[in-house]
Amino acid sequence: MIDTPARSPNFVGGERVLILSAGVGSGHNSAAAAVKQACDLRADIDDVRVVDVLQQSTVLYRDLLAKGYFALVESVPWLVDWGYDLSDQPFRRRGPLDPWTQANAMPTVSEIKRFKPTAIVCTHFLPAQLIASLLLRGVLDAKTAVVTTDYDFQGLWLTSAFHALFVAREEAKAQLTTLGVPPDRVRVSGIPVAATPEQAAVRSSERPPKLLISAGASGGDYAVAVVRQTLHMSSPFTATVVCGRNEELKRRIEEVVAPAGDRYRVLGFTAEMPQLLNDADLFVGKPGGLSASECMAAGLPMVVVNPIPGQEVRNGDYLMEQGAAIRCNTPSTIGWKIDQVLSEPGRLQHMQAAARRIGRPGAAATVVSQLLSGPSRPLVVTRGAQKTILAASENNLIASDLTGPFSLMRLVDPVSDSTIALLRAEEVVDLRRRYEDSPGDLVLRREERRAPFRWEARRLLRSVLGDDETLSVRVETVAPPLSVVGTRSRSR
After folding, report:
1. Domain match, 353 and 369 both
2. Residue 203 within any structural domain of the chain
3. How far is CA 317 from CA 111, 142, 152, 162, 326, in A?
4. Where does the record place the Diacylglycerol glucosyltransferase N-terminal domain (predicted)?
5. In the prediction, which pLDDT does 6 show?
6. DSSP code of residue 154
7. Same structural domain, 160 and 72
8. Of 185, 232, 455, 486, which is most buried by a Cβ count within 10 Å?
9. Does 246 lie in the same domain as 137?
10. DSSP helix/strand/coil, 302
11. How far apart are CA 54 and CA 70, in angstroms?
């Protein structure tokens, strides 16, 4: 856990921001650190803390999730790919957290009670699911954000209650709104990255191009093979190789590049990465969400090598689609591929321009600003709506095309003009029987006795009413995504 320095006693602010991450790899914690950095720069935030929920859990639980995942990546990558696709359907699993997860979440819940946050930011889907359960129980009085850390959206990140869902790119928002998620609750922020050096990158054509090779993330033998292949390149270049905390890998690579003299610089763990990214001309490494976003924020194109099946493959696809990366599927041709980029006049510069175009260096500040200024009531997705979203995803349907009792409706708070509930049409019928004020309008009221509904109406009332006794809302159908509307209007 990280605490901010003490503030001046005359400081006037009030916000208390809790950032929840999970140390499965370094990316989620790096995004959390970037959000904290953005919080530290705001005068309206009194205190901010970062908590790795896995560090709060048992050793067995932590090892199973963190070490177990990377063991699968190393030994059975095809299984990781299959698991990614299986978990890509939103709301495939519904209902409360399993007992083991609940037990391991108790220290985090205790931390929330002690800290009393006014805002919570989740950079991993595990704490996001926990926070959703607390919102539905009516025991949490804080604005909540779910911040995704890859360019593609995976269904595991979509929870049953949240205030804002931040995604990396416009296509992810289009995917969610096509499934019926209200667009006013989905924000395109980019992936939070640490602040880059204030000076813009100066990449002169007068000097040989600089390669930045991330060896530590690529695995020992594979990384050595990648570096060895660059020795056979015909284009002039210099290279910095970063090996992280792997001292054995650093030693092996130093032996490999020793005949090249001072062309190569080999580093272990370094705090210089922001400056290295800013100085380099081309990055060679895995396309993790944070690594890729840091490169794009620095205007640094990538040579994608050895991606983890699932999210990293999709990250690489997006970067290549945008013209900011190339992919090498085997280390034996990496030198040749880099030569192709460096020898073609203007190609490297075009890739750098593409990287700058899609980079979002201000993503962390965007997350903090839009969460704190956003609606105070959460969005609740009922279990009926979750079933409809899952069915739409499995059958490749646009949710707004559905009709009948299983179609989606939304409740809108007219004061903030924000969606506070997504539910099935059949569930709206139950609400109308009790709360209808006029056609299209309801007045929700706090109920002391159990509501005799077919679905869990009490969860909705607890979550959206807060301290209010009543709440007037509009009932609306889920509108088709803007892209679909435009397509239909042109086809007439």
Report:
1. no
2. no
3. 39, 36, 10, 29, 9
4. 28-193
5. 36
6. -
7. yes
8. 185
9. no
10. strand
11. 15
154 and 42 part of one domain: yes
Interatomic CA distance for residues 330 and 340, integer angstroms: 15
| pLDDT recorded at residue 207 | 86
Give the pLDDT score at 401. 86
For residues 387 and 344, membership in a common domain is answered with no
**Whether 168 and 222 share a structural domain:** no
Cα gap 417→412, rounded to integer Å: 6
Angle between helices 289-297 and 27-40 (to 10 degrees): 50
> Residue 483 has what pLDDT?
54
The amino acid at 214: S
Could you tell me if residue 205 is inside a domain? no
pLDDT tens-digit profile of 271-299? 888 899 999 999 999 999 999 999 999 99
Tokens of 453: 């509904």
Q: Out of 373, 403, 422, pick the residue that ends a domain.
A: 373
Domain carrying residue 408: 379-491
The answer as to whether 36 is a domain residue is: yes
Residue 201 belongs to a domain: no
Helix (H, G, I), strand (E, B) or coil at 400: helix
Q: How many residues does the chain have?
A: 492
Q: Are 445 and 382 in contact (CB under 8 A)?
A: no
The continuous run of DSSP H or E covering 470 comes out as strand 470-477
Joined tokens for residue 450 = 């159990």
DSSP 54: T
Say which DSSP state 159 is in: -
Contact partners, residue 254, CB within 8 Å, separation at least 6: 266
Burial-class residue 111 by CB neighbours within 10 Å (0-12, 13-18, 19+).
Answer: middle
CATH, residue 263? 3.40.50.2000
SS3 assignment, position 180? coil
Q: Is residue 19 located within the same domain as residue 144?
A: yes
Tens of pLDDT along 344-355?
A: 999 999 999 999
Q: What is the pLDDT of residue 150?
A: 95
Number of domains the chain contains: 3
How many Cβ atoms from other residues are within 10 Å of residue 97's Cβ? 16
Within this chain, do residues 367 and 346 fall inside the same structural domain, yes or no? no
Token pair 């054509």 is found at: 205
